[in-house]
Task: inverse folding
């Protein structure tokens, strides 16, 4: 992902999430040197991921497929690549947070070997207040 991708990324983000990241969030991730990847199909940006790392640990901060392209294996492929890259960088453990209501994402992470290790109470904004985050971990 480069700065010039942020408009297209933001357009997907706003369609895919009820509480989307802002332009500033993506710019901050690029400026911080996080591993920000995009996937294209026929020249169109259709998915992206953001991974931060430090002290041998990686954190999947975002993994998103454009709604019209979901359910075709792109999310799985994006996650597999992120896991392979993380391992190649020497990251031993990957973490992520996910809304317990996001069954599709949890299924994907479980199929990829992530296990639930805890809950962060009231981590996410939600329509009726706050929603917990399920914390998941995968040893690489
Ligand atoms: C979660 C997300 C990344 C999955 O990507 P995707 O490309 O749609 O998923 P894939 O086609 O790779 O499918 C991977 C797994 O997801 C699940 N899945 C995919 N489509 C599904 C559907 N229509 N219904 C239920 N589960 C589904 C399945 O477990 C599937 O594994 P399987 O096909 O091996 O059984 C995508 O739906 C998305 O971007 N959602 C909105 C943003 C989001 O919530 N991101 C995660 C934040 S933590």
Result:
């Amino acid at each position: 992902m480069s700065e010039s991708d942020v408009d297209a990324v933001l357009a997907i983000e706003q369609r895919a999430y009820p509480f989307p990241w802002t332009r500033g969030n993506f710019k901050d991730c690029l400026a911080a040197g996080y591993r920000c990847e995009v996937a294209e199909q026929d020249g169109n940006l259709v998915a992206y991921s953001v991974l931060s790392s430090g002290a041998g640990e990686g954190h999947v901060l975002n993994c998103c497929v454009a709604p019209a392209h979901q359910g075709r294996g792109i999310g799985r492929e994006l996650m597999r690549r992120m896991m392979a890259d993380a391992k190649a960088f020497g990251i031993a453990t990957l973490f992520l947070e996910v809304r317990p209501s996001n069954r599709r994402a949890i299924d994907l992470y479980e199929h990829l070997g992530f296990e639930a290790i805890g809950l962060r109470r009231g981590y996410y904004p939600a329509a009726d207040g706050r929603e917990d985050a399920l914390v998941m971990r995968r040893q690489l």
Notes: Residues 3-139 form a domain with the Aminopeptidase fold (CATH 3.40.630.30). The two ends are 24 Å apart (CA to CA). The chain has a mean pLDDT of 96.
